[in-house]
Automatic annotation (TrEMBL):
Species in which this protein is naturally found: Saccharothrix syringae
GO molecular function terms listed in the Swiss-Prot or TrEMBL record: antiporter activity
Lineage: Bacteria, Bacillati, Actinomycetota, Actinomycetes, Pseudonocardiales
Name recorded for this polypeptide: Cation/H(+) antiporter
Gene3D superfamilies in UniProt: 1.20.1530.20
InterPro entries named in the record: Cation/H_exchanger_TM, CPA2_transporter, Na+/solute_symporter_sf
Amino acid sequence: MIEPLSRTGHVLAVLAAVLLAALLGRRAARAARQPEVVGEILAGILVVPAVLLVAGADGLATVLPADVAGPLRTAGQVGLVLFLVGVAHELRHGGTAVLGARAVGWVTAGSFVPALLCGLLMAAWVLWVADDGVRGDAPAPALVLMVAIALSVTAVPVLARVLEDRGLTDSPAGRLAMAAAVVTDSAAWVLLVVAVGVSGGLLGSVALLVAGLVLLAVGRVALRAGGPTALAARHPRAAAVAVSGAALLAAFQFEHWGLTAVSGAFVVGLALPGGPWAAVVRPVAALGRLLVPVSFVVAGMGVANAPRGAVPWAAILVALALAVLGKVGGGYLGARLARQDRRTALTVGVLVNTRGLTEIVVLQAGYSAGLLSVRLFLALVVMALVTTAMTGPLLSLVERRGAAAPAPAR
């Protein structure tokens, strides 16, 4: 009995250390006037390399032995699953002010299509120019789709926080960027399911996607009934436990089918109605959000185990250049086609370039499914962090230029 108890204590101690590192990372990010998620991700990913640098391989094996790394990986996966329930629910029910269909359509197309094309360009670079360590072993079609998705994501939760902090929530640029991000992220998650399925065969991918849509339709019909909604209103805590269990069960089943666990969580989140269910989803997502930093530490284990001297600088630069071109340039073009003035269009482009936590979750899913090599995963993580960190300074620059301009040009 002593050894299991000792292992449990070790796991809990590591979890506490990870959560403390995430807290410190958030505070450091706030002090630097950056979104909290930037500090949180950096803290999580750098924990393992830092221990390895200070204590060496033997020290890392003592701090994070295999029988502790396993439960840690599970905790991180649980966190991602529960967090994605909240993200999917918010994508379906999150309100944005009524906007013109034409404007939303142009901005959505501008923030998604050019970014997707830039992702295809990067995938071509990975396949034909980059070395084998960046290329990895994933099937070419799945890799191409995965990289394209990675460059097209906009993080709705982080974007919402940026808009609130900047007082842009009700501005034309803020409303257009949020509406475009909701549509873009929804499409990105569907494409992620296809990408993971393609690695196991196109027919299987289509079948699993259809199965997911059927489950989604059945869940929505069942939960719209008065009985479940009334129970959720009267017993939100019990309903939250039930939703968590359903999300974890769906995640396990989707993974068993050959998809990622987060795909099952996304289906559960989309199936949940609004109204009283919002109070049910909130604690589920909050618990997931608390555990998500654990998954960053797991990612850091992969980074630490990468070959020394293998920092993919070329891949980082290519990813950054194409990511900014696709999102800032595409968002600006879409907003201009929607007849927005130049300052509003540029603000939209900067906002949709915010990737943050949603991007990291997408990359984690691709990495776990074997679609991304460690080096390509690292390059895309750096891209996500840098583009998110750019948002604040670029918005300040746009504001200063707008204040200096005599009048917005159309």
